[in-house]
Amino acid sequence: MTGTSGWTIVLLSAAGCYALKLAGYAMPQRWFDHPRLRRLIELMPVALLAALIVVEAVAGGRHYDWDAARLAGVAVGAVAVWRRAPFIVVVVVAAATAALLRQL
Amino acid sequence: MVRDSLGVGIAVGAYGVAFGAASVAAGFTPAQTSVSSLLTFTGGTQFAIAGVIAGGGTAAAALSGGYLLGARNTLYALRMRPMLGVRGWRVLLAALFTIDESTAMALGQRRASLSRVAFWWTAASVYLFWNLATVLGAVGAQALGNPERFGLDAAIPAAFLALLAPRLRRAAADSPGAGAVGVSRRVALAGALIALALIPLTPPGIPVLAACAGLAFAADVGTVRRLGRPGRRR
Fold first, then answer.
1. Which end of chain A is more exposed for a tag (fewer CB within 10 A), N or C?
2. What parts of the sequence cross the membrane (chain B) (predicted)?
């Protein structure tokens, strides 16, 4: 971790996320009435999660890193998600696949 | 109901172990990781921040992504506000407890009194298991060493995929045959492609943030009016 310390990040994320939650209880409701705003906030996680999947799967810093074992693990995890496996199964089969391939 | 709430808490525990391990792999200490779970208490955001930092992103990029991901909790709070009818110090606790699971369980009940029970029990159970699991994952990861040997680098994108999938499916359940699922999938695809294209072009962390731009494009093309209608939301 470079620059800003881990504690700063942890505390800023806690404060910001708490403020976001509290805002829904404490702020005037009409601030949030705009349907488009609500729609965008609802869809935000979809865009962010999709981007995070890609970045975590194929990025190594500022370049592409196509690691065969990792990609195979993600692919097996994806099949588990598609088959509606419980979360823990998804995580374990993805990790196990990558770990086993690296043992070979 | 209480049993359902405990079940949700235990299920979330698995995710907590993964977060604890990922956070330590990203360079946070087990203490920092635990404080994050105690105070931030919104898994997706915590995971995303660890992911961006692990990938070499700046604190600013990690926090921006985390806040954007946490903004949905504001909408949950707006939904829970009339249902819970909390005042005084309880508002402070209700706010901390307003997350995906507690909101979903509360909204799934038919009677208002049951919704309140579901909210508090689910939140308390998730809080307990999430924090225990975080410690377990963080300390475990530190003891085990090199996370790649255990395939953690594959488990993290798979975990995000498991979080994304229900959001794409739920849209379908909300409005069968309509455009909602199309919009979610278009947004997901646009976000993924933008991130993929930007990896070599921008500093780490930026591809994730930039993916939100795709959201504006994909969501705005003639669909917002139809989908934004009140009463449609879960």
1. C
2. 6-26, 47-69, 119-144, 205-224
